[in-house]
Specification:
This protein is an alpha+beta fold and 399 residues long. It has two domains: 5-196 and 342-396, FAD/NAD(P)-binding domain (3-Layer(bba) Sandwich); 201-336, Elongation Factor Tu (Ef-tu), domain 3 (Beta Barrel). It is 30% helix and 26% strand. The chain has 13 helices and 21 strands. It has helices at residues 16-27, 43-47, 74-79, 82-91, 111-123, 179-186, 205-211, 244-250, 269-279, 285-289, 295-303, 316-327, 383-396, and strands at residues 5-12, 32-35, 54-57, 65-66, 96-98, 103-106, 127-129, 134-142, 145-152, 155-164, 191-197, 201-202, 218-225, 228-236, 240-242, 259-262, 329-331, 335-336, 344-349, 367-369, 377-378. The strands form five sheets. Strands 1, 2, 7, 8, 9, 10 and 20 form a seven-stranded mixed sheet that branches. The protein has a seven-stranded antiparallel sheet with strand order 17-16-13-14-15-12-18. A hairpin with a 2-residue loop joins strand 13 (218-225) and strand 14 (228-236). Helix 1 packs parallel to helix 5. The longest helix has 14 residues, at 383-396.
Length: 399
């Protein structure tokens, strides 16, 4: 041990969860080392929310998270909620606004959130090393004292507490790897199957032919899959479908599942056509539907189930087919656009392995896992950042 630099806590991963854990532990008086393999900290924070960082949501409940154990997140989000992080934001004079559905964004740039975390880490005396590649982790026992030794390209360090905050597999272009899952397996901990989360769908060629020419078109829709329903915008793309509602439902989708889309939510199309036949009989149906959708989408969608003509000329069978096409459009995605563009990673370290209070592994004293590497995945809208803040803070109280 004498040849190594000694710390109370070593945290691997300087993202949202890792930095929150570091500052919390540092402000408690713990000697903290924060290691980051990239050339700068908080890279995912910087690109989030279109560069403005959707740093939390005003309404955070357990139902906004997916996990093999839906109760696991409750302790952390109740002990460090949105108001706690908002207090930090306001302490640092960062202006912010609610965009929609409780989503809070910086008025300025996401770098403000990174700077907030860095300033709090400095206040806690946290030592940060970037471009630091972890080569080996060992769990030592010397003269009855247990500690972790971390061998890196910058040196060897030891600490009684080791925190894994290395995130998931999403956005490999900014350095995402499976490092955290490897550490879990090294210590015999279970890892649940991972998959891209909050991600766009790709479509089969037949469905793509139907949507050809609509790339870039966005519309409000009601999207349903596996008894989950989201109402928000969808976006037609060259590969398939994206937009907030699609990203949300992707968390509940498994390969082979059908997704149903209502392009005219809060609207009874069948009833409207009957009314139009009485009041506007000579109007073309594409123009009438085009008053609620873009005209291009209305016309293309109509031709997939019927020809366009004056509304008075449609019979009941044609109306039924049109209603199904617009309000019960059923697709089976061919897949997703994958980790390169996925917002998060579903799955991860099995929560059965961790204390929901401290985030310490039950079977390995002093080893902690926080943030996205754990099997807790939030909805779109600031929930995953709130999970990072909450899990990081709670672990930081005990490391």
């Amino acid at each position: 041990m004498s040849n190594m630099e000694q710390f109370d806590v070593i945290i691997i991963g300087a993202g949202a969860a890792g930095m929150m854990c570091a500052l919390t532990a540092g402000l408690r008086g713990r000697k903290v080392l924060l290691l980051e393999h990239a050339d700068r900290v908080g890279k995912k924070i910087l690109i989030s929310g279109g560069g403005r960082c959707n740093f939390t949501n005003l309404r955070v409940e357990a139902e906004h998270f997916i996990s093999g154990n839906p109760h696991f997140c409750k302790s952390a989000i109740s002990r460090f909620g949105p108001n706690d992080f908002i207090a930090l934001v306001e302490k640092h004079g960062i202006e912010y606004h609610e965009k929609k559905l409780g989503q809070l964004f910086c008025d300025g740039k996401a770098i403000q959130i990174v700077n907030l975390l860095l300033e709090e880490c400095r206040a806690g005396g946290v030592e940060i090393k970037t471009r630091c590649k972890v080569e080996k982790i060992e769990h030592q026992n010397v003269e009855g004292k247990r500690f972790f030794t971390v061998q890196t390209n910058l040196g060897r360090y030891d600490a009684e507490s080791l925190v894994i905050a290395t995130g998931g597999l999403s956005f490999p272009k900014i350095g995402a790897t499976d490092f955290g899952y490897g550490v879990a397996k090294q210590f015999g901990l279970k890892v649940r199957v991972c998959a891209p989360g909050l991600v766009s769908f790709t479509l089969h060629p037949r469905d793509l032919r139907e949507t050809e020419g609509l790339a870039g078109t966005s519309t409000d829709a009601l999207v349903t899959c596996n008894k989950q329903i989201f109402r928000d915008a969808i976006l037609f793309t060259h590969k398939g479908l994206s937009g907030p509602a699609i990203l949300q439902i992707s968390n509940y989708w498994e390969p082979g599942d059908a997704v149903t889309i209502n392009l005219l939510p809060d609207f009874d199309l069948a009833e409207a056509i009957i009314l139009w036949q009485k009041e506007r009989p000579k109007a073309e149906l594409k123009n009438l539907i085009g008053e609620r959708l873009t005209k291009r989408l209305a016309q293309q969608w109509l031709t997939l189930s019927s020809e366009n003509k004056p509304v008075s000329q449609y019979n009941a069978k044609e109306v039924a087919a049109i209603v199904v096409r617009f309000q019960q459009w059923r697709i089976v995605p061919s897949g997703t656009t994958g980790y390169p563009v996925a917002e998060v990673t579903k799955g991860g370290l099995d929560t059965d392995e961790l204390s929901s209070k401290t985030f310490e592994a039950h079977r390995v004293k002093g080893l902690y896992f926080i943030g996205e590497v754990v099997d807790v995945t939030g909805w779109l809208g600031g929930y995953n950042f709130q999970w990072a803040w909450a899990s990081g803070h709670c672990a930081g109280l005990y490391v």
